[in-house]
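Structure first, sequence second, as always.
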């Protein structure tokens, strides 16, 4: 009787182990599958947004309209597709923490106006371009997803453009653009902080400077 009991227990143990092992493997496979699908969905959304932003910019710069009209169109584009408060905070840096809510709002508004005026002219270089998505990388953090594209320019060499897209605010928004490896965010950080220092570190002077750019 003891021998039979031992065999039965041994059989049950092996069967239980096999079941648990199969359950573990299956669950891990399904988990990996879900994670892969989630990552694929995030990248797809980021690429869609990047394409939409480019198409909107292309439509704006192709318009036979005044610079003021193009600037206003870019302002609307920023409202729809860019996380301007995040960009403004990153550009200003540590002085941001010293601002009250009214000053933060005023700076963000002035910074957005400044960007629209400045890049309405610079984006005009993209007239006639066709965008091809090459690859995308998901950092998994607040930095979000970098969508690397190549702009095929008529009569000139292609231009590499990277679109940094993040959903840290709840929805996918653009937080940076890199043209031939040069970051808009990094460039403007240097520019804005230089203006801030030259103005005696007065946020009001900086806001006025950006408004009157």
């Amino acid at each position: 009787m003891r021998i039979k009991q031992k065999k039965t227990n041994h059989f049950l143990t092996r069967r239980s182990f096999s079941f648990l092992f199969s359950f573990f493997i299956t669950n891990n496979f399904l988990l990996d599958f879900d994670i892969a699908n989630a990552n694929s969905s995030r990248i797809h959304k980021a690429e869609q947004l990047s394409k939409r932003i480019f198409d909107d910019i292309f439509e704006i710069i192709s318009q036979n309209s005044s610079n003021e009209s193009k600037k206003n169109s870019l302002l609307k584009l920023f409202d729809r597709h860019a996380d301007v408060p995040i960009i403004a905070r990153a550009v200003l840096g540590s002085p941001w923490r010293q601002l009250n809510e009214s000053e933060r709002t005023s700076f963000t508004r002035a910074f957005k106006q400044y960007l629209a005026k400045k890049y309405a002219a610079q984006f005009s270089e993209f007239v006639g371009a066709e965008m091809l998505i090459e690859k995308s990388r998901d950092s998994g953090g607040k930095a979000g997803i970098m969508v690397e594209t190549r702009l095929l320019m008529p009569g000139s060499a292609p231009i590499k453009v990277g679109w940094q897209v993040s959903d840290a605010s709840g929805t996918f928004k653009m937080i940076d653009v890199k043209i031939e490896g040069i970051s808009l965010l990094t460039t403007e950080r240097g520019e804005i902080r230089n203006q801030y220092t030259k103005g005696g570190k007065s946020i009001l002077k900086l806001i006025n400077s950006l408004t009157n750019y």
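Margin note: Residues 2-61 form the longest helix (60 residues).
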